[in-house]
TrEMBL record:
The keyword Coiled coil applies. Gene3D superfamilies: Ypt/Rab-GAP domain of gyp1p, domain 3 (1.10.472.80). Keywords: Coiled coil. This is Rab GTPase-activating protein 1-like. It comes from Hirondellea gigas.
């Protein structure tokens, strides 16, 4: 039943029209209420105009909720009975009655006070049942037969505003398009300047790219050259290392050969020394075994001092010793000269060894000569 009542109110009582077409009918109701206030409550109407209070600021809830939002239930129940009985005109009647009962308070308040009064004080004032009954009795006595006239006035005003609004709208559209054109021109100029700047940047970037490309090519050439030089250095280093290894091996071979030659020469010198010693011992034995009656050689050989001065005139023993010494030295020199190891004149080391052998032979010869001098 409640839903059926809601459907009845929305359709048959025209309540649904308030929410259609951008609340166009609701604005019509506001205009009708303004005209009723101007007729019945001119002082309140003028005061609201002066302080800037519009009808929709306080009456929108009256029309959209049928006084059910703020007012007490006792008043709401009575009003719904009145609404179902008389129709939508009761909204205007109750609204004018509320304004009449609050006339003194409303004309003395400012903008914020008026809005607060409608929001707080007016619902509280209606909580008394006697006040509610007085409100409904007053509302029934209010005549709202001019609502149709006010509706025609509103429609005429809307039509006039519509015709005027077309020209105004065209003017506004023209001004808007002109402003849009100016804006687009300014934006076009800005874009043109930006394009010029971007072209300059692009040209600079192109030049930089060419320079970088040339620098890259030069770098590649330098890299190739350095790689070639590195390869050459590596090859040279490799050859030097190989040559150094070869020289080291050759030096090691020469040192080994030198050691072998030195060992052989030492053995040979030792052998020659022993042979010369044996020869000297043999000569000494021969001299000591001399049986000549007037021979003084035995005394010269056995004497420890005065050997050189006592027998300096004895040429026979000196000649024998000189001959023996020369023969031994000559044999040593000939042996050294005929040695294949010393004959290799092309090798500096061999030449040095040969010179060493010759020096040793000469030293042995000097020793024999010294011994010969002592014998004399």
């Amino acid at each position: 039943q409640a839903f059926c009542v809601l459907v009845k109110i929305m359709s048959d009582y025209g309540f649904r029209n308030l929410f259609k077409d951008g609340f166009e009918v609701l604005h019509l109701r506001f205009y009708q209420l303004d005209r009723l206030m101007e007729d019945y409550l001119n002082d309140v109407y003028v005061h609201f105009q002066e302080i800037g209070v519009a009808t929709h600021m306080f009456a929108s809830q009256w029309f959209l909720t049928l006084y059910t939002a703020k007012f007490p239930l006792y008043m709401v129940f009575h009003y719904l009975d009145l609404f179902l009985l008389t129709g939508f005109d009761s909204v205007f009647q109750v609204g004018i009655a509320l304004l009449m009962m609050s006339r003194k308070e409303l004309v003395s308040l400012d903008f914020e006070g008026v809005l607060k009064y409608f929001r707080v004080s007016l619902p509280k004032k209606s909580r008394n049942e006697d006040t509610a009954k007085q409100l409904f009795r007053l509302s029934i006595s209010i005549k709202v037969k001019r609502l149709d006239k006010y509706q025609r006035e509103y429609l005429a005003l809307k039509e006039q505003e519509s015709s005027e609004s077309v020209s105004e709208r065209l003017g506004l559209e023209n001004r808007r398009l002109l402003a849009e054109k100016l804006r687009l021109d300014a934006e076009n100029d800005s874009l043109a300047r930006r394009i010029d700047a971007l072209e300059e940047v692009a040209e600079k970037a192109t030049r930089d790219a060419k320079q970088l490309k040339q620098g890259l090519a030069d770098t590649e050439q330098e890299k190739t050259r350095l790689m070639q030089e590195a390869t050459q250095v590596k090859d040279l280093l490799k050859r030097e290392v190989e040559r150094s290894d070869s020289e080291q091996k050759r030096s090691a071979a020469i040192v080994s050969e030198y050691k072998t030659i030195c060992g052989q020469l030492s053995s040979r010198l030792e052998t020659e020394h022993n042979q010369h010693k044996q020869a000297i011992d043999h000569i000494s034995a021969c001299i000591l075994s001399c049986t000549a009656p007037d021979c003084k050689c035995r005394e010269a050989v056995s004497s420890d001092s005065g050997m050189g001065t006592s027998y300096s005139s004895n040429s026979s023993l000196g000649n024998i010793i000189d001959t023996t010494t020369s023969t031994a030295a000559g044999g040593l020199m000939s042996t050294s000269a005929g040695d294949p190891l010393t004959a290799a004149s092309g090798d500096p080391l061999t030449a040095a060894l040969t010179a060493r052998d010759d020096e040793a032979a000469r030293r042995r010869a000097r020793e024999l000569s010294s011994l010969s001098s002592q014998v004399r």
